[in-house]
Write a structure and sequence with these properties.
FAD/NAD(P)-binding domain, alpha/beta, globular, five-stranded parallel beta sheet, 20 strands, 356 residues, binds flavin-adenine dinucleotide
Length: 356
């Protein structure tokens, strides 16, 4: 039985904790935020199921299907209700060919996945987080509000300072974002770790709006629409017709739409009212609802999405070469490919290649 720490309670960290605890390791997981899940976060509010982070995984993902099976939630997996998508060119909506919307938005998914859409869980991606938290509860020392602040090498052991305490471990899995990993590891490993803080990331803000269905004349017969680059205002790039794409997401007689923005650094500081106003203005231009929304939910994701350019890949490879043999292992979407499927594959590989 090995003493293991996992830093980061997103999908990658939770899965590593699950797989290691199952083979009998003594696992402590520390998460900086008050809740687990990282970029998976589903709200349930007034009958709406609102994704604040990821809404689904590439439909062909064997990694997610496998974990869902292991967690006993495979029967909750659901597909899209439609595959049709539109583009908005500043004048009107035009139907796109299959796979074009994802390509248009620059999704970093393998070409073979384009055009097959996504799958998710009936109750949202949060179902996976809840299931993991449920199985981990009795076996793993789960600590939220416990940011990892320092990691030092003590001979064969690793000393982790997180929250209020410092403890020794044989292996530490770092499943945070790249910038957080850089800050944590730079004091020990110097520039090879600090360099990760210079890796490019993208920010995202999403605004989910609940309308009375009767207020929108459009049939909403698609997954949503993407916005042509020269027609984008305020960073508005796409809209998901959530209640048409996935079921069940809105109570009878309502439509749930989700607007995606790529914010500037200054935009990230805008308050909820300003973001709601932006989203309403954006949707008025395309769908012209006769009434305003009844509710709005805003999610801000500063510097959350890694950009897998050559520089970032080289920095990860250099840091991993330096970490070899130390017992510190990088895992998750920040290091090995963006998205849920990549995060899980990275976590699985980390566990298989780095058993103590
Ligand atoms: C708006 C949005 C929509 C998305 N949509 C999709 C989608 O539809 N499909 C898809 O496949 N992917 C999507 N993604 C990406 C996907 O959600 C992520 O790639 C994946 O969830 C990342 O999981 P992870 O565990 O690697 O990292 P994260 O979920 O980022 O988890 C890292 C965790 O580490 C914690 N942490 C950071 N620093 C510390 C520290 N010092 N100490 C302790 N904990 C720390 C963080 O709080 C966080 O909980 C989306 C992302 C966003 C933001």
């Amino acid at each position: 039985m090995a003493k293991i720490a996992v830093i980061g309670g997103g999908l990658a960290g939770l899965s590593i904790a699950f797989w290691r605890a199952r083979v009998g390791d003594e696992v402590t997981l520390v998460e900086a935020k008050p809740e687990l899940g990282g970029q998976l976060c589903t709200l349930r509010d007034a009958g709406f199921v609102v994704e604040q982070g990821a809404e689904g995984f590439v439909a062909g993902s064997e990694a997610v299907a496998g974990l869902a099976e292991e967690l006993g939630i495979a029967t909750s997996v659901v597909g899209q209700l439609t595959q049709k998508s539109y583009a908005f060119d500043g004048q009107g909506l035009h139907e796109l060919a299959r796979g074009e919307a994802a390509q248009f938005l620059g999704f970093q998914v393998p070409r073979r996945e384009l055009g097959h859409g996504i799958r998710t869980f009936r109750g949202g991606m949060g179902e996976m987080v809840s299931a993991l938290a449920r199985v981990l509860g009795p076996t793993v020392d789960l600590r939220v509000r416990s940011p990892a602040k320092g990691l030092t090498l003590r001979g064969e052991r690793l000393e982790l300072t997180a929250g209020a305490g410092t403890h020794e471990f044989e292996r530490v899995f770092v499943a945070t974002g790249a910038h957080a990993a850089a800050r944590l590891l730079a004091p020990v490993f110097g520039d090879v770790a600090a360099a990760l803080e210079r890796s490019a990331t993208l920010s995202s803000v999403t605004v989910s709006l609940a309308y009375r269905r009767a207020a929108i004349a459009h049939p909403l017969d698609a997954t949503g629409f993407v916005v042509a680059e020269d027609a984008q205002l305020d960073g508005f790039r796409a809209c998901t017709f959530t209640s048409s794409k996935l079921a069940p997401r809105a109570p009878e007689g309502h439509a749930l739409l989700r607007a995606f923005f790529r914010p500037s650094a200054e935009d990230l500081a805008l308050d909820d009212a300003a973001w709601t106003a932006r989203a309403v203005r954006a949707l008025d231009r395309v769908l012209a609802p006769t009434d305003g929304p009844e509710r709005a939910w805003i999610a801000r994701w500063p510097a959350a999405l890694p950009v897998f350019d050559d520089e970032h890949r080289a920095r990860v490879a250099a840091l991993e070469a330096t970490l070899r043999g130390t017992g510190i292992v990088l895992a998750g979407a920040a290091f090995h490919g963006s998205g849920i499927d990549a995060a899980l594959k990275s976590a699985r590989r980390a566990v298989e290649e780095h058993s103590v």
